[in-house]
């Protein structure tokens, strides 16, 4: 299913059963020099610029967990495997994907199941990235078919194997522009016994972000750090998650509260309530609001986050902070340029970068969705992409205008 923010319907969708089938489809497109759009289950269809292609290659039939080695802390799965299936298999072994995969369905109103390939292509990482790193950091190996129609393997299937490290990291967040991922291998971590969240109430943006940053430099291993502004029915919440054994949490949450409690009233959330809160934060639920609002995701140094938001107040409909203030989510009212003329200069002055993650097709076709690149970086990007896809047949224009 595709929402109003997704791509236009493709008239020809091909879904190979295996990697050899993916190679055949790409080689055919290469021979005809016909652009090819790629996707998994389509749950992230509204992410990036629209691609003009008469044919879509779907990896949704490339399914299955192919390796699960709890002792080595690794898992491998084919690109079309639902992320939920991988997480369920890991949970049976007491492990998880530590970066807390980000689910785009609430943003776009799509259905279906997010897949491993889409997760890699989007580098889709949630609140735990603040301590565990991104999907890119957990990715230790991939198989993919390049725009040359060649299947390649990079990295390994154990944590200590770093062969092909650069290509592995390059694939994450490339949005299918250098190759079609057919299999991915991730390092995993044990699931903690419990979690709790300390909430400081009533702080303004600057004080809230300052509290997040102060918490991150304590020895208490904060695994989630977000600030939710006040609403009509609730005060602002500065949220700090702790995870580990129940016995440890009692001490750590008390020590963290003692260190930060002078900043404002505090509240502690139990395990179920904490988990529900961070699921909402992971899905950007605090700012979804009206469906026609356009949504930006801004990465910036936490020390500059509150000041940046203050400058953008005239255009902000709603917002919140994640990653200790290093990630700012902003919703704006509908406009032809999604308020880019105001937002981008402010973000650049703060030395950050912004991605338009939700907007109609026409807006995403006319506005830079990803941060505009400096000329030297743009040339390097084109050169790297051309090394894998010399004819530019894979998702042309997805990230930047041709």
TrEMBL record:
Ranges where the FAD-binding PCMH-type domain occurs: 5-191
Listed name of the protein: Glycolate oxidase FAD binding subunit
Pfam families per the UniProt record, alphabetical: FAD_binding_4 (PF01565)
GO molecular function: catalytic activity; FAD binding
Keywords of this entry: FAD, Flavoprotein
Flavoprotein is among the record's keywords: yes
Species of origin: Hansschlegelia beijingensis
Entries under SUPFAM superfamilies matching the protein: FAD-binding/transporter-associated domain-like, FAD-linked oxidases, C-terminal domain
């Amino acid at each position: 299913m595709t929402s109003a923010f997704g791509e236009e319907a493709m008239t020809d969708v091909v879904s190979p059963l295996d990697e050899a089938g993916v190679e055949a489809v790409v080689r055919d497109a290469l021979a005809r020099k016909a652009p090819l759009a790629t996707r998994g289950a389509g749950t992230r269809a509204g992410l990036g610029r629209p691609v003009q292609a008469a044919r879509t290659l779907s990896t949704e039939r490339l399914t299955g967990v192919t390796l699960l080695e709890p002792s080595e802390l690794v898992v491998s799965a084919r690109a079309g495997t639902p992320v939920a299936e991988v997480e369920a298999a890991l949970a049976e072994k007491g492990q998880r994907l530590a970066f807390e995969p980000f689910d785009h369905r609430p943003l776009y109103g799509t259905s279906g199941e997010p897949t491993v390939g889409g997760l890699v292509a989007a580098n889709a990482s949630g609140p735990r990235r603040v301590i565990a790193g991104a999907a890119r950091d957990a990715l230790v190996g991939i198989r993919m078919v390049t725009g040359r129609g060649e299947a390649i393997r990079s990295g390994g299937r154990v944590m200590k194997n770093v062969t092909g490290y650069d290509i592995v990291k390059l694939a994450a967040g490339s949005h299918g522009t250098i190759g079609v991922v057919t299999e991915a291998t991730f390092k995993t971590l044990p699931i903690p016994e419990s979690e709790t969240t300390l909430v400081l109430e009533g702080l303004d943006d600057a004080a809230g972000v300052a509290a997040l940053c102060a918490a991150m430099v304590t020895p208490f291993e904060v695994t989630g750090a977000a600030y939710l502004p006040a609403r009509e029915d609730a005060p602002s919440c500065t949220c700090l998650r702790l995870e580990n054994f129940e016995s440890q949490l009692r001490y750590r949450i008390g020590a963290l509260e003692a260190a930060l409690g002078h900043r404002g009233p505090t509240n502690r959330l139990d395990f179920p309530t904490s988990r529900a809160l961070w699921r909402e934060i992971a899905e950007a639920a605090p700012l979804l609001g009206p469906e026609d609002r356009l949504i930006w995701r801004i990465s910036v140094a936490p020390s500059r986050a509150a000041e940046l938001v203050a400058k953008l107040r005239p255009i902000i409909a709603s917002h919140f902070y994640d990653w200790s203030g290093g990630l700012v989510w902003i919703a704006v009212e509908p406009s032809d340029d999604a308020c880019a003329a105001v937002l981008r200069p402010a973000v650049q002055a703060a030395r950050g970068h912004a991605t338009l993650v939700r907007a109609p097709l026409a807006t995403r076709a006319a506005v830079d969705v990803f941060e505009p690149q400096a000329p030297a970086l743009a040339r390097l990007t084109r050169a790297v992409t051309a090394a894998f896809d010399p004819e530019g047949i894979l998702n042309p224009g997805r990230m930047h205008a041709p």
